[in-house]
Amino acid sequence: MKGEPWRAALVVLRGVAQVMFQPNAATGLLFVAGLAVGSPLVAFGAVFGSMIGAGTALLCKFPRDDIEQGIYGFNSALVGVAPLVLLQPRPMTWLAIAIGCVLAAVVTRLCRRFAPFPTYTAPFVVVTWGLLLAIHGLAGHEIDAPAGPSPVSEGSLAGFFAEVLSGEAEVWLEASPLTGLLFLIGIALSDWRHATTAAIGSMAGTLLASYHRDPESSIALGLYGYNAALAAMAIWLARPSLVPVLLAAAISVPLTEFFPKSLGLPALTAPFVAASWIVLALIALDPYLQRRGTARP
């Protein structure tokens, strides 16, 4: 990528897009635009993280094709965002981001070499949890970002669709329906089926959370939609059929509800990863689910 800034920019944007399974630079650009709607600083964090992840992979001579497709950018991009949302932007926060983005790329490579199953955003989750534990151990919770105002559920059809779109936005820890809409448009530019699956997943998660009478403010934030959207997309890629897709979305909701808050750590995308693993195991064990479609590479 040296001497070719445009090519490097495409790799960085693909890394951003790969957070939602799209190796498409235009998708990544719309993701960055969506993040900038909520916070230009967070948008910068996504680009910065993907850049560090790709740069680390290049220096460590990871497979070039994977680098070009943004595989080593997406976990690092998420690590670049999470501390800026959860913590105040102090020098310690930026140092943690830089270290975490390098670690995320390395852990991604180790997982791709040795894990017998898809690891998805597990490297982001593990690295971010470690960073938060270390930062809180050094600086206490005074470094935490102040909590914003809790949104109010409107209880209308328009309010429901706003919650669904917020579910898409929460993939990147944002809660803006406009951000979520830009994300869906970005996914559709790459593959309309994936955008449809993401919307179905967020709808299913939001409806199930409402049926379970989960806190309305959490539903309005999209907290039960984003893991469902990601799980639905992940399973569609493995088994393109509605039954396992809806199953994955549904399983993600109780995992989000019962995530052990006593640990003092945010759930992040851990429920998505766990739900996807559970459904992949069920597909491997259940001949009926195996017949519900043909696996994609």
From TrEMBL:
Q: Does the keyword Transmembrane helix apply?
A: yes
Q: Cross-referenced InterPro entries, in alphabetical order?
A: Ammonium/urea_transptr, Urea_transporter
Q: What is this protein called?
A: Urea transporter
Give the protein family: Belongs to the urea transporter family.
Which Pfam families does the protein's record reference? UT
List, in alphabetical order, the Gene Ontology terms for molecular function in this entry: urea transmembrane transporter activity
At the top level, the lineage of the source is: Bacteria
Bilayer topology term: Multi-pass membrane protein
Q: Where in the cell is it found?
A: Cell membrane
What does the UniProt keyword field contain? Cell membrane, Membrane, Transmembrane, Transmembrane helix
User: Gene Ontology terms, cellular component aspect?
Assistant: plasma membrane
Record field: transmembrane: 31-59, 71-87, 93-111, 120-139, 223-251, 263-285
